[in-house]
Design goal:
Blueprint (H helix, E strand, L loop, with lengths): L9 E5 L3 H7 L4 H22 L3 E8 L7 H24 L2 E6 L7 H13 L6 E9 L1 H17 L10 H5 L12 E4 L18 E4 L9 H12 L9 H8 L1
Parallel strand pairs: 1-2, 1-5, 2-4, 3-4, 5-6
Helix pairs in contact: 1-2, 2-3, 2-7, 3-4
The structure holds farnesyl diphosphate.
Farnesyl diphosphate binds next to helix 1, helix 2, strand 2 and helix 3.
């Protein structure tokens, strides 16, 4: 039986609160997103220091296209600048960078930059950093189901063999350790269509801290909180205690 490890192997974060952080300072929302980029650097450093294996960040949801055109444009510009500035350092730190989501919606130059950063860092293993862009949990489940259906149509898979394991293999991030800790900043307590399948047994940590203020100490507190949880996976507390011996 799994003991709760003190350090989660895989952390996912909904980075919420950039807009409110900027509003508090009477600045445009893009100012908050820019400040949010520094918090991304903080959590990457924190994960490297704490020995977390994978970090998945919700940078742009399938629903974020509905935001004002100006804000979407500012976010895209920010992603491009971040890619250009950060890839070298991430590579030097042994970070493997991946973009997760439906990348077909992005323009060609941005897609090429994403592919180049992924290719450049593909051999790194210290930390898997996944940036979820144009991602939605329901989209992920649907694409896995479609992939399985196509395999059935091609005669490569029996329809009866489509079970949780078979679908799970087709979900985004399947090759990474299971998601242990799901963090959301900004005070709301919901998943917002992020990693719906992968979060099935994740511990949830909600904090009022606005994303630009989330730093290595905040990450450490979330990890400590995780370490106090008892992960039962459907078993009783007594069974878990017996297993711990
Ligand atoms: C949610 O806050 C945040 C986003 C939709 C964008 C996240 C982007 C970053 C943190 C920028 C840096 C990211 C990378 C990967 C370089 P919100 O705008 O919904 O805040 P609000 O709820 O206060 O309005």
């Amino acid at each position: 039986m799994t003991k709760t490890p003190a350090i989660p192997r895989h952390i996912a974060i909904v980075m919420d609160g950039n807009g409110r952080w900027a509003k508090l300072r009477h600045r445009p929302r893009s100012f908050g997103h820019n400040a949010g980029r520094k918090a991304v650097r903080e959590v990457v450093e924190g994960c490297l220091r704490e020995g977390v294996e994978a970090l998945t960040l919700f940078a742009f949801s399938s629903e974020n296209w509905q935001r004002p055109e100006e804000e979407v444009g500012a976010l895209m510009g920010l992603f491009v600048r971040a890619l250009d500035k950060e890839t070298d350092e991430l590579h030097a730190q042994g970070v493997r960078l991946r973009f997760t989501g439906d990348l077909t919606a992005f323009d060609e130059p941005l897609r090429e930059r994403m592919q180049a950063s992924m290719a450049r860092t593909a051999g790194n293993h210290k930390l898997h950093l996944n940036i979820a862009v144009n991602y939605g949990g329901r989209w992920d489940i649907a694409q896995a189901a479609r992939d399985a259906a196509c395999a059935v149509a091609r005669g490569e898979l029996r329809a009866e063999a489509v079970d949780e394991a078979e679908l799970g293999r087709r979900m985004c991030l399947a090759e990474l350790p299971p998601l242990d800790l799901f963090i959301r900043t900004g005070g709301d307590c919901r998943l917002s269509n992020f990693l719906l399948w992968q979060a099935a047994y994740a511990e949830l940590h909600f904090t009022d801290t606005l994303w630009p203020d989330f730093d290595q100490a905040s990450l450490h507190r979330a990890i400590e909180d995780y370490g106090r949880r008892e992960r039962r996976y459907g078993r009783t507390g007594d069974q878990v205690a017996m297993d711990k011996g």
